[in-house]
């Protein structure tokens, strides 16, 4: 058993499942938006605002924003623990990796909160 | 004359590794790479490599042959010589002891971690623990591994985290004991693998499957371990 404090769920199985679940939500959201834009070639602000006014669309968008944050957390954490390691960079790696992980987590949380603010702010 | 370029490094004498070029007369025969090494060893006794069985059974002559890991003794020149040139390097990612000889400690440490032996708490029967032919068949494609390390040293995930990710060879053996009907420690074995590194650092690159000289499929075994983890963990 290898432990790690900065992975999203600290469980390999949950991280793996969440990465797949969030990918599905993101794929569905992307398809929906692309489809919507394709069906509405002369989209104006009023129609766009109406689309996001209903609760279902707000929740769908929120799910996509949270999924993006989780998906990015798991993916970037994997990249950082692959490449920013003592094995590859020497002793600077551990403080550097920790700093990058914290920055990555803050940016992801920040984007998620910002998305909520946008969705319920207009 | 076949041109052979070989990775040389003797830490007692050399500051850095270098490639040394040799020429060998193969007499136009499709020799095995190990035959060529033996001819070179006669030419230059300082050349170091491991070998024992010379028939793909002992797993000691795993090396990087023209860019692809394999066993020198069962790789014919026709499979690896390009433009009349053969390039031999040690297995990637492991510390080099000398020339083509690598330090396998990390590889064996991961093998040991999966407890590659049968664990059974029930009192042993008078003669032996029996299996049905179907139960026995589940071990096919798993027990044949000769621990040559060709797979794990071809795996990028193992290059980056050889101390945390078990690697394809260790995981193939982990599944060999998870799949064994006579082993009663499945839950304990799974608990030791559930973290984000041990199994889940596998990204499905399948280099392991590509190079295994015994044609085994570690990626499939890793998939089966994931299914077992899913079953017990959800
Ligand atoms: S499939 Fe997994 S174990 Fe095999 S080489 Fe790829 S990452 Fe490594
Ligand atoms: S799975 Fe294949 S490549 Fe890997 S150690 Fe076993 S025999 Fe060698
Ligand atoms: S010498 Fe034994 S496997 Fe090649």
Please, could you describe this protein's structure?
The complex is a heterodimer of chains A (122) and B (234). Chain A has 5 helices and no strands. Chain A is mainly alpha-helical and 122 residues long. The termini of chain A are far apart. Chain B has 234 residues and is an alpha+beta fold. In chain B, 31% of the residues lie in helices and 14% in strands. Chain B contains 9 helices and 7 strands. Chain B is elongated and about 60 Å long. The mean pLDDT of chain B is 97. Classes of the chains: A mainly alpha (122), B alpha+beta (234). Bound molecules: iron/sulfur cluster (SF4) (2 copies) and FE2/S2 (inorganic) cluster. One iron/sulfur cluster binds next to helix 6 of chain B.
Question: Unreliable stretches of chain B, pLDDT < 50, 5 or more residues?
Answer: none
Distance between the termini of chain B: 61 Å
- Rg of chain A, rounded, reads 18 Å
Chain oligomer state: heterodimer
Main beta sheet of chain A: strand number and arrangement? none
Largest sheet descriptor of chain B: 5 strands, mixed
* CATH topology assignment of chain A: 3 helical TM bundles of succinate and fumarate reductases
Q: In total, how many domains does the architecture of chain A comprise?
A: 1
Number of helical stretches of at least 4 residues of chain A: 5
**Average predicted confidence as pLDDT of chain B:** 97
Q: How does CATH name the architecture of chain A?
A: Up-down Bundle
Topology:
The complex is a heterodimer of chains A (122) and B (234).
Chain A: H1 12-39, H2 45-51, H3 55-83, H4 86-89, H5 93-121
Helix pairs in contact in A: 1-3, 3-5
Chain B: E1 2-8, E2 18-24, H1 33-43, E3 62-65, E4 68-71, H2 77-80, E5 85-89, E6 96-98, E7 101-102, H3 105-113, H4 133-137, H5 156-160, H6 167-178, H7 186-191, H8 207-211, H9 218-233
Parallel strand pairs in B: 1-5
Antiparallel strand pairs in B: 1-2, 3-4, 3-5, 6-7
Helix pairs in contact in B: 3-6, 6-9
Bound molecules: iron/sulfur cluster (2 copies) and FE2/S2 (inorganic) cluster.
């Amino acid at each position: 058993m290898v432990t790690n404090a900065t992975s999203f769920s600290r469980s390999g199985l949950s991280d793996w499942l969440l990465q797949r679940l969030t990918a599905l939500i993101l794929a569905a959201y992307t398809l929906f938006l692309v489809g919507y834009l394709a069906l509405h070639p002369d989209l104006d602000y009023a129609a766009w605002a109406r689309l996001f006014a209903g609760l279902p669309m707000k929740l769908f968008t929120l799910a996509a924003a949270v999924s993006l944050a989780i998906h990015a957390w798991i993916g970037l954490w994997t990249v950082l623990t692959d490449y920013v390691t003592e094995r590859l960079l020497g002793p600077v790696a551990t403080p550097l990796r920790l700093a990058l992980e914290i920055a990555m987590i803050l940016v992801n949380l920040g984007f998620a909160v910002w998305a909520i603010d946008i969705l319920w702010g207009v | 004359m076949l041109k052979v370029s070989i990775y040389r490094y003797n830490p007692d004498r050399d500051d850095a590794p270098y490639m040394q070029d040799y020429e060998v007369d193969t007499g136009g025969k499709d020799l095995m790479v190990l035959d060529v090494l033996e001819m070179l060893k006669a030419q230059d006794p300082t050349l170091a490599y491991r070998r024992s069985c010379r028939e793909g059974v002992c797993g000691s002559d795993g090396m990087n042959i023209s860019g692809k890991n394999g066993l020198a003794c069962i790789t014919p020149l026709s499979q690896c010589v390009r433009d009349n040139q053969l390039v031999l390097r040690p297995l990637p990612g492991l510390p080099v002891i000398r020339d083509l000889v690598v330090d396998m400690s990390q590889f064996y440490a991961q093998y040991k971690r999966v407890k590659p032996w049968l664990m059974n708490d029930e009192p042993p029967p008078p003669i032996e623990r029996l299996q049905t032919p179907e139960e026995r068949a589940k071990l096919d494609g798993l027990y044949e591994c000769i621990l040559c390390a060709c797979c794990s040293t071809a795996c990028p995930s193992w290059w980056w985290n050889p101390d945390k990710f078990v690697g394809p060879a260790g995981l193939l053996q982990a599944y060999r004991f998870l799949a064994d009907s006579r082993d009663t420690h499945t839950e304990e074995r799974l608990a030791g693998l559930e973290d984000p590194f041990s199994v889940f650092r596998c990204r499905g690159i399948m280099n392991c499957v590509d190079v295994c000289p015994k044609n085994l499929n570690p990626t499939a075994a890793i998939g089966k371990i994931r299914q077992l983890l899913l079953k017990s963990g959800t």
